[in-house]
């Protein structure tokens, strides 16, 4: 009887150990801004004007066993906007656009990941805050891969796209010459911490 109880105990402990080991460890990654980009385009009369933000940071919490459990947070500094025109970039800081003196940061925090787009492609829902206004947005995200980088760094790569209606955040400057829809493309290379 004593031997049977010990055997059952050993089996339960072994089972618990297997279960504990099977649980995924969430990996933390920091965006490598030197190898990442935040780009956008918007209609101007009959063509499109493009730009980017050069100063941003962010972190990803990645569950490799179930990527739908992953999370991402990012911050973009509005004054870093670059459209290849100093005059236009200065105007974008003003109140009819970003109002950067009062709201110098744009932030995104994911709330849900789903595999609606297929293997390694996700719908990532999150809260985007611009000018102090928070709206839910959906990003189409593709996992580009995991792998070794230089000097032993372990990397993850991602691409995200979405289209935003800028007026939802109170950005109304330039209408009607400047369109309301902004196409956004984000490419991320992140380093495991």
TrEMBL record:
Domain of life: Bacteria
Pfam families: YceI
Signal peptide, first to last residue: 1-24
Keywords: Signal
Gene3D superfamilies: Lipid/polyisoprenoid-binding, YceI-like
SMART domains, per the entry: YceI
Name used for this protein in its record: Polyisoprenoid-binding protein
Xref: InterPro entries: Lipid/polyisoprenoid-bd_YceI, TTHA0802/YceI-like_sf
Annotated Lipid/polyisoprenoid-binding YceI-like domain residues: 28-191
């Amino acid at each position: 009887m004593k031997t049977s109880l010990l055997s059952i105990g050993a089996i339960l402990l072994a089972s618990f150990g297997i279960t504990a080991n099977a649980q995924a460890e969430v990996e933390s990654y920091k965006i490598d801004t030197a190898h990442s980009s935040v780009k956008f385009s918007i209609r101007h009369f009959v063509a499109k004007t493009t730009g980017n933000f050069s100063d941003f940071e962010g972190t990803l919490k990645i569950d490799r066993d179930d990527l739908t459990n992953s999370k991402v947070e990012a911050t973009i500094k509005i004054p870093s906007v670059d459209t290849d025109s100093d005059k236009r970039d200065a105007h974008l800081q003003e109140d009819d656009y970003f109002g950067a003196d009062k709201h110098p940061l744009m932030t995104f925090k994911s709330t849900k990941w789903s595999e609606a787009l297929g293997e390694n492609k996700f719908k990532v829902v999150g809260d985007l805050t611009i000018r102090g206004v928070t709206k839910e947005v959906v990003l189409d995200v593709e996992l580009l891969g995991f792998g070794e980088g230089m000097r032993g760094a372990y990397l993850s790569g991602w691409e995200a796209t979405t289209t935003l209606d800028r007026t939802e955040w109170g950005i109304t400057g330039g209408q009607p010459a400047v369109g309301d829809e902004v196409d956004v493309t984000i490419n991320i290379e992140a380093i495991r911490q």
